[in-house]
Amino acid sequence: MARTIGPVCKLCRREGEKLFLKGTRCMSQKCAIERRGYAPGQHGKTSQFKRGRSTDYLNQLREKQKARRIYGVLEAQFRRYYQLALKSKGVTGAMLLSLLESRLDNVVFRLGLATSRAQARQLVAHGHVDVNGRRTKAPSYLCKASDVISVHPASLKSPYFKNVQKEVAEYVPPKWLSFDSSQLSGKVITRPSREEIDLTLNEQLIVEYYSR
């Protein structure tokens, strides 16, 4: 399982925008973008003036890297998602984002059971999540329509999930998901469409990057 062991706030600063990689911290004044809104590194403050003009390749690369960092996947895995989207019916870019949104760790995050995708990935890997009643430890599992995602019965007794149950009492998930806060259980209604994915990504640039 891929994970970033360095300071993830640097990733947001590199992309020049919030990627919401640290949950509630990203919404506070402690957010790195709020405190240091420039690229990381020794020359971060002046690098924007030294790089010269932006190129099509640079824009495509940055958009691809941003998507990878948001969903927390490595390059080889991200490329496989692109190849799968390329073979699917529909617009390739939209299908790519739909596949990424359908990852189990992302669904757990979208259901409000975790404050970030990294935390959701950890919950899945530690066996706290069931899919259709069976414990599933693969964060990359692609959820399908009618799949039921729930907290493992033994994990419901933990202080973390007792606290989550209080916090998500009024939580409303995206339209492609249904959620029962009393049972900490959700269901995938359908694969998300591009309009239902609230990310400021230009997926066409990612398609252009891999089409070179």
Would you kindly provide a brief summary of this structure?
The protein is an alpha+beta fold and 212 residues long. It contains ten helices and five strands.
Strand content: 5-15%
**What is the number of domains?**
3
CATH topology of the largest domain: Structural Genomics Hypothetical 15.5 Kd Protein In mrcA-pckA Intergenic Region, Chain A
Residues in helices, as a percent range:
40-55%
CATH superfamily of the largest domain: RNA-binding S4 domain
Low-confidence runs (pLDDT<50, min 5 residues)? none
CATH class of the largest domain: Alpha Beta
Helix-strand pattern, N to C?
HHHHHHHHEEEHEEH
Number of helices: 10
Radius of gyration: 18 Å
Number of strands: 5
Arrangement of strands in the largest sheet:
2-1-3-5-4
What best-fitting shape do the alpha-carbon axes yield? globular
Oligomer state of the chains in this structure: single chain
Mean pLDDT across the residues is 85
Characterize the largest beta sheet: strand count, sense, and whether it forms a barrel.
5 strands, antiparallel
The CATH architecture of the largest domain = Roll
Structural class: alpha+beta
